[in-house]
Amino acid sequence: MSETQRTREFITGNEATARGAIAGGCRYFFGYPITPQNKIPEYMSAHLPEVGGVFLQAESEVAAINMVYGASAAGARVMTTSSSPGISLMQEGLSYMIGSELPCVLVNMVRGGPGLGNIGPAQSDYWLATRGCGHGDGQCITLTPNSVQELHDFTARAFEIADRYRNPTMVLADAILANMMEPCDVLPPTEMPPADRPYAVGPHGQERERNIVNSLWVDFDEMEEVNLRIQERYRQAAEEITDWEEYGSDEPEVLVCAYGISSRVCESAVDEAGKAGVQARLVRPKTVFPFPSEPIAKWAEQAKCAVVVEASMGQFVEDVRLAVEGRCPVELVGHAGGNIPAVSEVVARILEMTS
Amino acid sequence: MREEIFLGGLGGQGVLLGGQMMARAGMDAGLNVSWFPIYSPEVRGGSTTCTIVITDGRVGSPICERPETMILMDPVAANTFAPQVAEGGLLVLNSSMIEQPPGHEDCETLWVPANDIAVEIGNERTVNMVMIGAWAGRTSALSIEGIAEALQHMLPERHHKHMPANIAALERGAEIGAESRQPGG
Lengths: 355, 185
Prior knowledge:
The structure holds 2 protein chains of 2 kinds.
Chain A: E1 7-12, H1 13-23, E2 28-31, H2 39-47, E3 54-57, H3 61-73, E4 78-82, H4 84-89, H5 91-99, E5 104-110, H6 126-132, E6 141-143, H7 148-165, E7 168-174, H8 175-179, E8 181-186, H9 220-241, E9 244-248, E10 254-257, H10 260-275, E11 280-285, E12 287-289, H11 293-302, E13 305-310, H12 316-324, E14 330-334, H13 343-354
Parallel strand pairs in A: 2-3, 2-4, 4-5, 5-7, 6-7, 10-11, 10-13, 13-14
Antiparallel strand pairs in A: 1-8, 6-12, 9-11
Chain B: E1 2-10, H1 15-28, E2 32-39, E3 47-55, E4 69-72, H2 75-81, E5 89-94, E6 107-112, H3 114-121, H4 127-139, H5 144-154, H6 163-180
Parallel strand pairs in B: 1-4, 4-5, 5-6
Antiparallel strand pairs in B: 1-3, 2-3
């Protein structure tokens, strides 16, 4: 990706995501419409053909993820995007892709749930991303941007990550990030890498043995071998791509943990708490699988307490508790159903915890 | 500096485009900005709002609980949102449609007959420009030229013929805003 050729534009998170994908070499898109992410397929339908790509609206999310499976098996850079109920429908296909050791990128612009829910912002698919992705010992590598710029950059990078670890990689955001507009330094489109990857199916003449893409391993030991390979890649990913940002005081009384849109609320809350005389430090994961346990453990050692803020009734908080390992009390400020925690509420909890 | 501005009105009044234009003008002036919309599913006439942050620091939360400025264009938006304006904040109200002063006692109010001015200018769709011009004239947070330039960027070329009416609306609004400034304020 050429950093020097970026152009500054004022665009929505959805558009930034779509353009990030094309900058990441994506040339195949399969999906099914659902609010609040429809601007992504809309953009792709207009612009993928311009770079020689294929946009196809599937008849359902189940079909879409299996088209992604097929394109990935053929060595293509491929993606799908959806929102919560649609990602639920893709679970089986994702598990098959993990089992077949295939890369793809998916974006989840999370909306209120459970069920059909509503089109408001939510972070209640944290478990779906980090524990879900279907049955078996597999997960999606999960990136959590908190701005329009990061939606663009993380989506572009997600294709590299998916390829490197041969695993589906999810960009996990929400309805606010999808619809809001911010300045974004947009990367130019790049070519898709050649599709004749070592594992890919497709025409090959007599140059190599034929490849088989498959997630069925009848022999127990062979199936365990696949699992060990997958786990080894997750271990490598934890070493190589775990990422986070910190903001606020170097001598915090309170550790604040949040990702995505909630971390934007928390930036303001950390500033406000400082004005009210309480020093706080925000640790904001940019990846949640792999999870940045180390900085959370480090600051939990020093802080009196941790406040976890998320637009769900308590999912991300569990990973924070696992990282904190009892070093300090962990409190949740959570909302659901389209509501997100307010700055004043987070500040009030920070002050309450230190009083 | 940090400006938190909330725009509210009816779908079709140009709330969303107006807000985008303000944020874009802030970006072009080298500032950090965000624009965050909430609107109902109706194509025309539904409740429509957006929140803009313009700052030389980090934007942080793009959602504001108590915005310092509210630009409200219809009575329903005025009744619903005006009480949330920050203490000591500014309400810019469309007096062509809003009759009762809403909000609370500890805020300033700038009345702008935006529909009447838009009709005078000869383009009823410039109500949002009159309102935003009034805000800019009052606060000088963004220049009228910068806002007009941002609009030119955002409008599809087929609508560029409407630029003169939009600029006229911005300028008329700015005059009202500038006149409303308190001496020494």
